[in-house]
């Protein structure tokens, strides 16, 4: 019998983050371990994308306090690249288009950097493309250029599966994709959370304001984020309460929803 693969833990403690001089996250505590699915739900402008940006190290996000560690290592002192190599992965709300760079090249580079380069990469990519329902021709095309919303998210999910990070943050994986693509992506992520001989199971922090992703990707815990604070936590039943009563049920701080244009949607956009 082989020893079980070691577990990983992402620990966010008392995290306070300002953007453009304004405090957006006001003390976030959240722990994600291998094999777990945690959902962060909240209205537009609550700070969901700010949370993913701060954890991944996007420039322009000032850490006012608190800590983020991955297996005890200080994530906040790492560069974006070091965070990725350490095992953190972000699936962006709006994947970046990269003209002139093909997905298979990106994956070869990324795997080499992780000491997992090899000649079988083409076969691995083809198998994953088949599994996620992405035409294999797209593997050789420029990354995300002229792809439909569904193709972009299948593509992002394929990268997640091939890279095999320890903890993944999915920022609105469900935005801009049809029901079939949503199901394919959610089922692939769900499969990645299952432990096997080599992996303790992917830990997932899924950010969404809709219920539909959660019916496919069963969260263990739901955290409700309103105005930079987690105002409620519980099991999957919380999503049903949200569906019925909206966010107002969780906080008397909720007033009218913030305009969606105010949110951070592109992780690589310059800070406003
Ligand atoms: P969500 O993802 O929950 O919709 P965001 O994290 O994108 O929310 O945004 C939270 C708040 O931070 C909003 O009020 C938004 O206007 C503000 N914000 C986000 N990014 C910036 C930025 N780069 N500059 C100034 N304010 C920002
Ligand atoms: Mg957002």
Describe it:
The protein is globular and about 55 Å long. It has 8 helices and 12 strands. Helices cover 30% and strands 27% of the residues. The protein has 272 residues and is an alpha/beta fold. It has helices at residues 48-56, 80-86, 103-113, 121-132, 149-163, 179-192, 212-216, 237-245, and strands spanning 9-19, 22-33, 37-41, 61-70, 73-74, 88-91, 98-102, 142-143, 167-171, 203-208, 221-226, 229-234. The longest helix has 15 residues, at 149-163. It has one domain (9-262): 3-Layer(aba) Sandwich (Rossmann fold), CATH 3.40.50.300. Mean pLDDT is 87; it is low at 256-272. The strands form 3 sheets. It has a 6-stranded mixed sheet, with helices on both faces. A 4-stranded antiparallel sheet has the order 2-1-4-5. Strand 1 and strand 2 (22-33) form a beta hairpin. Helix 3 packs parallel to helix 5 (149-163) and helix 4 (121-132) crosses helix 5 (149-163). Bound molecules: adenosine-5'-diphosphate and magnesium ion. The site of magnesium ion has 6 residues, from helix 1. Residues 19-20, 24, 42, 44-50, 60, 258, 262-264, 271-272 line the site of adenosine-5'-diphosphate.
Helix-strand layout with pairing:
Layout: E1 9-19, E2 22-33, E3 37-41, H1 48-56, E4 61-70, E5 73-74, H2 80-86, E6 88-91, E7 98-102, H3 103-113, H4 121-132, E8 142-143, H5 149-163, E9 167-171, H6 179-192, E10 203-208, H7 212-216, E11 221-226, E12 229-234, H8 237-245
Parallel strand pairs: 3-10, 3-11, 6-9, 9-10
Antiparallel strand pairs: 1-2, 1-4, 4-5, 7-8, 11-12
The structure holds adenosine-5'-diphosphate (ADP) and magnesium ion.
The site of adenosine-5'-diphosphate (ADP) has 18 residues, from α1.
């Amino acid at each position: 019998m082989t020893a079980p693969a070691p577990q990983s833990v992402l620990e966010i403690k008392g995290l306070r983050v300002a953007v453009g001089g304004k405090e957006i996250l006001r003390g976030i505590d959240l722990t994600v371990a291998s094999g777990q699915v945690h959902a962060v739900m909240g209205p537009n402008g609550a700070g969901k994308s700010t949370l993913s940006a701060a954890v991944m190290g996007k420039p322009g996000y000032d850490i006012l306090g608190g800590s983020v560690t991955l297996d005890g290592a200080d994530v906040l002192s790492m560069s974006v690249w070091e965070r990725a190599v350490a095992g953190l992965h972000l699936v962006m709300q709006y994947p970046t288009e990269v003209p002139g760079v093909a997905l298979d090249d990106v994956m070869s580079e990324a795997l080499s950097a992780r000491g997992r380069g090899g000649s079988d990469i083409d076969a691995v990519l083809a198998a994953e493309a088949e599994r996620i329902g992405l035409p294999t021709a797209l593997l050789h095309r420029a990354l995300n250029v002229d792809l439909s919303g569904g193709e972009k998210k299948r593509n992002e999910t394929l990268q997640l599966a091939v890279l095999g990070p320890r903890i993944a943050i999915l920022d609105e994986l469900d935005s801009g994709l049809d029901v079939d693509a949503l199901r394919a992506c959610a089922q692939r992520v769900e499969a990645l959370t299952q432990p096997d001989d080599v992996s303790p199971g992917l830990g997932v922090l899924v950010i969404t304001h809709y219920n539909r992703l959660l019916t496919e990707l069963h969260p263990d815990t739901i955290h409700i984020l309103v105005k930079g604070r987690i105002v409620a936590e519980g099991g999957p039943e919380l999503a049903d309460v949200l569906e019925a009563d909206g966010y107002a049920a969780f906080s008397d701080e909720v007033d009218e929803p913030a305009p969606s244009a105010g949110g951070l949607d592109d992780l690589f956009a310059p800070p406003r």
